[in-house]
Design a protein that fits this description.
mainly alpha; Rhomboid-like fold; two-stranded antiparallel sheet; 9 helices; 6 strands; elongated
């Protein structure tokens, strides 16, 4: 989706700033973003992958539950995924915010900031090219710091992972054909995919712009909901 969708006489309205999900610490955070971020996607491949998975697994669940119950399930999974993502994002941001506050306190006193300290802060927390070491270095550090806090999260992947988890729980022995050629039971695909996402979420690899904890959170919320709804019906998972 285009980042700038509407243009006024004096300024452009940034759709991503308004409707994408932002960290609680960001000045751009708004409560409605917990819902609206699910309806924004980065490119055609992003939305196609999510909608293909939603059609493959969600249509089966909708036939079982009905449209209203399925929609409730889908939205709650998306909300749960967003909240878990924000919790882990807050945890990741805490050391950066603490260290920036120390640098800012020194700057406010008028004392010269150590270039070594600024360089260390940039290398440790702030992505992007090296910051030139000149008299405007703290301004540039502050700008990059605010950019990091204002990173946006978009996409329905968290809700879709909830749908996948529910499908795996209800239909564990259904065969899914990878690339329409290689059959694998839903339970094994679900376990492998969840393990993959959990591994990279814990790794928190630099440069990974995928919201792994949203995927993990959506799957967990979806699994808890379907277990609760289905508690009167024992499942033979294996």
């Amino acid at each position: 989706m285009a980042k700038f969708a509407f243009r006024g006489e004096d300024a452009m309205i940034n759709i991503q700033d308004i409707f994408a999900l932002h960290a609680w610490q960001s000045s751009l955070f708004r409560p409605w973003q917990l819902i609206t971020h699910m309806f924004l996607h980065g490119d055609f491949g992003h939305i196609f992958g999510n909608m293909l998975a939603l059609w493959m697994f969600g249509s089966v669940l909708e036939n079982v539950w009905g449209s209203k119950r399925f929609l409730t399930f889908y939205i709650v999974c998306g909300l749960g995924a967003a909240l878990i993502h924000l919790l882990f994002l807050s945890y990741e941001f805490l050391p950066m915010m603490r260290d920036y506050q120390l640098l800012n306190d020194i700057q406010q006193t008028g004392k010269p900031l150590s270039i070594a300290d600024l360089s260390q802060f940039v290398a440790k927390y702030l992505p992007g090219p090296p910051i030139p070491l000149n008299e405007n270095v703290f301004t540039e550090v502050t700008f990059r710091y605010q950019e990091t806090l204002n990173m946006a999260t978009i996409g329905a992947s968290g809700a879709v992972f909830g749908v996948l988890a529910a499908f795996v729980y209800l239909f564990p022995n259904t065969y899914i054909y990878i690339y329409f050629l290689f059959p694998i039971k839903a339970k094994w695909l679900g376990i492998l995919y969840f393990t993959y996402e959990l591994f990279f979420a814990v790794q928190n690899s630099a440069g990974d712009n995928v919201a792994r904890w949203a995927h993990v959170g959506g799957a967990l919320v979806g699994l808890l909901i379907v277990i609760t709804w289905n508690r009167g019906n024992r499942k033979q998972f294996f």
